[in-house]
Structure formats: structure tokens, C-alpha cells
Amino acid sequence: MVVLQVHFLLIPFLMGIMGAAQYLMQDAALLSYIDQRFLSLEKRLERCNQDMLEYVDEFRDFSKTVLSRLAGLNAAKAEVKGEVENLLSRVDHAQRDIDYFGSVTESNACVEVHEDLVKQQLLEEAEEKKRLKLMLNASCDHVLAGIRSLKVVKKTGGKHGSWMKDPGKKHTKIYLLSGSVNNVILEFANIMAFMENNHTLRARRVPLPLPWEGTGHVIYQGFLFYHRHSSINEIIKFNIQRRNVADQMLLPGAGRIPAYQLSPQTKIDLAVDEQGLWALHAEPETGGNLVITKINHVTMAVERSWDTPCSSKGAEAAFMACNTLHVVYNAPSGGASRIQCLYDVLDALNTHINPGVHFPKRQGGHSTVHYNPKEKQLFAWGDGSQIIYKLHTELKV
């Protein structure tokens, strides 16, 4: 009986010992697996490190090779540069020798050739002058001698604006364009309607689809020609009666700087005289001097341009009359306006600086001065006043 009890007590004990031994064997196997994994990782890291060292060595060798070749290229470049400079020097010496022998052996022939070139140039200039006269249908035999009087027709609007008649039409309508940026023309039946106190009620309002910029617009043959606002050099041809844009063009070289220093709001100044439509503007390439461009008002094509010696510095306005540019100058603070530069496109030698033509009586400045070839008068806008100047002309000498 006692032996049986001992047997039952030993069985759980032995079972516990066997379980513990089994767990110890499992832990030992896990530790062995982890140890092998670490050994494998260490071998991989060591191999990676070895590869990195090999890459660094290869890169150093490559850098040395590249630097060596660059040094060789610099040396070759210096050698080639020296050879080119030597060749240029030899070419220069050879050219001087050729020039010398040519001048010694063929001096008489060269003189004859030069004389022939001068004669040919004179003939070409004479032909060009004939072509210009035919193109412009030049019939002007008078020149401006002075400005006799002025008449302040009305005072309306701000500092900038323009007013005019259409010299290409028989009607007596007056057109008012107020401001340096706007899109409405006021049309009056005649100058008496314009002079009335309630003149705006008597006017026909003509809206434009595209606003103007500056004050250099003109009305000719029933069309308004103006510089389009926010464009550099686009000129619009607007049919006043039909109220639509008839044509447009880009004026080469224009619109980058003001045409006149004292009227910076105007980049392109359009003008009309006995020969039709002109454009006046300044260019940086001419040092700020004025450029004249003849425009065909029908086709809106440039016919010819002239660079003038007339400076835009100190200028406030200009106008064309009988193929001649007249530039009006003033003081920055305003004063007595005067014409100080004349340029005849048919006779560049007939250019006059400071011809001594002064505007009468009035002190101030002009926003615009436009010539009316039909009435031989100047229509000007000065400090909000609409002014007419009568001209005194003389026969050309």
C-alpha cells in the first residue's frame, strides 16, 4: 500500500522534470538559430564594407584620370590659342602689305573709281529726290515765318487732350478727345456749337471699341487714327461714321519711349499736312531724336522713314506742315513755347536749329499742337484750353 502511494507521488515529479528539460532544449535551439543569423548579418556587413572600400578606391583612380586629362586639355587649349594669335598676326601683316602695294600700284585707278562712285551716288540721290517728290506730290512753296496771333476758343477738359477738324472733309465739324486715356469722341456740328456753355449736350458721342493712349491722334478723311492704349506701337484706323475699326498696323521702332520729354503721355504722335498722314516718335537707337514716318492712310503701310537731328529733350509737341517737321520746345515748368527745330524731308540740308519762331503772348504748356492744312492754322490744347494759332508763311527761297 505504501509502495503504491510513493509511485503516484513520483509520477508528477518526473513529468515536471521532463517538461523542464524539453523547454531547455527548445531555448537552446532558439539561441543557436539567433546566433547563426547574427553571424550571417556580420558576414554581409563585412562584405558590404569591403565593396564600399573598393568603390572609393575606384572613384579616386577615376578622379585622378579625369584631372590628368583636363590638365592636358588646358595645355592643348593654350597651345591652340597661341597658334591662332600667331596666325591672326600674320594675316594682319599680310593685309597691310596688300593694302600698301595696292595703294602704290593702283592709286590712279582707285581715284577714278572713287570719282565714278561719287557721280553714281549723286545721280542716285537726285533720282531718290525725284521719287520722293512724286510720292509726296510736293506742291508746297511756302515756309513758316512766324505765328501771328492766338485765339482761346474755349476752356474745357483737363490738362491733356486734343481737338481738331477733319482737313480731308468739306464739313465744319469739330471733334474733341479729352484725356490721355479714353474711348469716347465728342462730335460737334460746328465751332459755334462747340463754344456754347452746355456744349456736351450738343455733341454726338462716338464710343470706341478700343481706347486711345496719349494725345497724338488725328482725324483725316472720315477716319480717326490713334495709338491703341496698352499696346507698344499699334495704330488703329477707326471709321467714325460706321463706328467700327477699319484697319490697324504696327509702327516699327515706335512706342518704347515718349515722343516728347515734356509730354510723356504721348508715345506716338500722328500728324496730317498737305501730303497726308505722318507719324512722329522717338527711338532709343537715335539717342532720343525724333523719327518721321510717312504712312499711306488708305493701306496703312509705311512708305518711308527719316531720322532727324531734332531732339525730344525739352520738347512738348510737334507738327508737320508742307513736308517739314516743326518741333515745339518749352521749359519743364511751362513758359513761352517756341519752335527750335525744322526738318524738311525733301531737303535734309535745309534743317534749321533754333529758327527763332515763338508762340505769341501766352505762357504755359501744350499737350498737343496739330496743323490743319486746309485752314493753315494750328489747333492746340494748352492747360485745358482749346486754342487756334494763325500762321504767317513766306515763299520758299
From TrEMBL:
Keywords: Coiled coil, Disulfide bond, Secreted, Signal. GO terms for cellular component: extracellular space. Disulfide bonds join C140-C322. Residues 1-21 form the signal peptide. GO terms for biological process: signal transduction. It comes from the Eukaryota. The keyword Zinc does not apply. Residues 70-97 form a coiled coil. Its main location: secreted. SMART domains: OLF (SM00284). It is found in: Secreted. Residues 139-395 form the Olfactomedin-like domain. This is OLFL1 protein. It comes from Chaetorhynchus papuensis.
